[in-house]
Amino acid sequence: MALFKSSTRIIPDVPAVPRHIAIIMDGNGRWAKQRFMPRVMGHQRGVETVREVVKACREMGVEYLTLFAFSSENWRRPAEEVSFLMQLFLKMLEREVGKLHENNICLKVIGDRSRFDAQLVGYIEQAEQLTAANTSLTLTIAANYGGRWDIMQAMHALSQAHPERATAFEEEELDPYLSMHYAPEPDLFIRTGGEQRISNFLLWQLAYTELYFTDVLWPAFGRKELEAAIASYQKRERRFGRTSEQLKGESGA
Ligand code: IPE
Ligand code: IPE
Ligand code: MG
Fold it and tell me: Which CATH superfamily is domain 20-251 in?
């Protein structure tokens, strides 16, 4: 797999519209609680926001959209909530994959699948195969994903591939083994729900990503809020370690 513009190895292009947006969809439970509804109703409603944001990204020419749906730490939640989320994921795959395919969207799922039941794994594989050649948008769902898990599994796979070299790997050698090897690093990270933390999302890939935090809860997020996040991104100066003077004096690198 090609080396994909590592922000620490080369200075990446700075697209006006982010090529890759990564989102922590947070605040479902609080949204429901504010309405005196059970938390899971917030997750249900959050699916509608997913639809709206996918559509908006496709229309705006975003190439990669990565959504954090379930973290490796979310198993710590009450069993009923975990089971509801798994069922919801299964239903989403069942109902929405046809539409994604019609819209030329490529679906990928990243995360540790070993804790998912066989039916869910089967649906994921089918959906990925069906949509593999699609080109309008690559939608990645991070499910049972953790940034530390990702780095560890990639390191493990890399060392398995080169048993003779116990150490002395280069940074770019790890890249093909990371879950998001097929995508450029995110240009823009969005977290809804007011918390200002990464919560073990794409630790490696967020090295030079512009971070945007909003208090809006995920079920209340929509195209308007997405546009506000992109407008904020467009005002940033992405220096990648250089000085502001360098950027103003030179056109490219
Ligand atoms: C995000 O919403 C969805 C998942 C983590 C699955 P939350 O469920 O974390 O909602 P809050 O943060 O409790 O409001
Ligand atoms: C992060 O949200 C994970 C997802 C949105 C899937 P959490 O609600 O789990 O994060 P913390 O616990 O507040 O950090
Ligand atoms: Mg939360």
Answer: Decaprenyl diphosphate synthase-like (3.40.1180.10)
